[in-house]
Specification:
The chain is of the alpha+beta class and 406 residues long. It is 41% helix and 29% strand. 33% of the residues are buried. This is PaRep2b domain-containing protein.
């Protein structure tokens, strides 16, 4: 029963978000129903059967089954010489049930009536928007059969498989659908995540949704309101917004976890593996290491130290890292403060002796620090290394994101 109402509920939810209708109690109820339907659909089993009779192009029939094995909906995916399309024609109740399932899986699906019959139709973008592995396997099986039958050539096959793996360049963040792209700056490829609303109400709703989720304008995103015929924009700042998504995911926000997985999926498929290696790594590793009680030793100099505490204090908006360690029962400490040069580089200067160098090398997991003495300059890579430490990481990353704002 609830499944047949999903399409209308989903439409109401999106309309409220996009048009800034902030009746929170209503939106919260719709969001609760939305989550319930999505959880129900996630439990469905997806099966497919490939048909390839002579004289016609092959197609796959995808079936959705409940936990008892009963078929509750099905749809056919076909090829029309240029693109995929999926189609179902049947009774109103079945069409609405199918549309609800496909919508909950991420497709733009709606049951429509024509000439007394009801149908559901998906375009290529909606087909690839569904990221369930079993569904994607069905589409890939169709591609392989189309190639085997000579309907598509090797180049088309490769392109289609890439599109299926990547999916549409869209990710939902805090209820706002963002487009994902890339631009080349010099020799580097940069990830762009943005939303371009035409109407001020849609812009205001999106900004409110982002702020309510804890994103800060100037730190996590930049925005320009639509004026007259000129559209506005909201552009998310990388890597700051990714770090915030990781933080929210750790706090239990399922939508943030889904957004991260989708961004990783898009980045890998579009040839941007640095998103994972460079952008996400500091946040994924943030506060995963507890340094307290860590024993560091250098036998040649007869030094043995125990890390007692590492913490951060703000001084004039800048983070000062304080390291406390114990040698021969005596507690000692040293500190250094992070700042930004006129050229925009993040640095810190620290005065090292034998004991401090040993302790800092262990905290940074950088053996080259052991041999350094006097004033040593630390850079962003060292800040990210320190961000692994509990009680320190998010404070340092938050400051870094703030000073790197546009």
């Amino acid at each position: 029963m609830f499944a047949t109402a999903w399409t209308e509920l989903s439409r109401l939810w999106r309309f409220g978000v996009e048009n800034g209708l902030y009746a929170d109690h209503i939106l919260n109820k719709l969001e609760g129903i939305r989550r319930y339907v999505e959880e129900y659909v996630e439990k469905l089993r997806i099966e497919y059967e490939l048909y390839s009779p002579q004289g016609v192009n092959p197609w796959v029939e995808v079936r959705f089954r409940d936990d008892r094995g009963n078929e509750i909906a099905h749809i056919n995916i076909r090829w029309n010489r240029y693109a995929f399309y999926a189609y179902f024609n049947g009774a109103k109740e079945k069409a609405e049930r199918l549309a609800s399932i496909l919508s909950a899986l991420g497709a733009n699906a709606e049951a429509k009536e024509h000439g007394g019959s009801w149908y559901v139709q998906l375009t290529t973008d909606s087909i690839t928007a569904i990221r369930r592995a079993e569904w994607l396997e069905a589409v890939k099986a169709l591609v392989e059969e189309l190639h085997r039958r000579g309907v598509i050539d090797e180049e088309q096959k490769g392109r289609l498989l890439t599109e299926i793996s990547a999916g549409p360049n869209v990710v939902e963040i805090a209820g706002v659908e963002m487009s994902v792209g890339r631009v080349t700056v010099g020799k580097s490829k940069v990830l762009i995540i943005r939303y371009q609303p035409t109407f001020p109400t849609a812009f205001d709703a999106a900004v409110k949704a982002l702020r309510d989720a804890g994103f800060e304008e100037g730190v996590h995103f930049t925005a320009k309101r639509p004026e007259g015929d000129e559209p506005g924009y909201i552009r998310l700042k990388v890597p700051a917004v990714l770090w915030r998504l990781v933080e929210l995911s750790r706090q239990g926000a399922d939508w943030a976890d889904k957004a991260l997985k989708r961004l990783e999926e898009i980045a890998k498929a579009r040839g941007l593996p640095e998103l994972v290696e460079e952008y996400l790594k500091p946040a994924i590793e943030a506060e995963t290491v507890d340094p307290r009680g860590l024993v560091v030793e250098e036998a040649e100099r007869g030094i043995k130290a125990v890390i007692r505490d590492v913490r951060v204090m703000r001084e004039g908006g800048r983070p000062r890292v304080i390291v406390e360690y114990e040698v021969n029962g005596v507690t000692k400490s040293f500190s250094f403060i992070w700042g930004v040069t006129t050229r925009g580089r993040v640095i810190a200067g620290v005065n090292l002796n034998d004991e401090r160098a040993l302790a800092l090398a262990a905290l940074l997991d950088d053996e080259t620090i052991r041999g350094k003495r006097n004033v040593v300059t630390l850079y962003a890579k060292h800040l990210f290394a320190l961000a692994r430490l509990k009680g320190v990481g998010w404070e340092l990353l938050s400051w870094y994101a703030g000073v790197m704002r546009e």
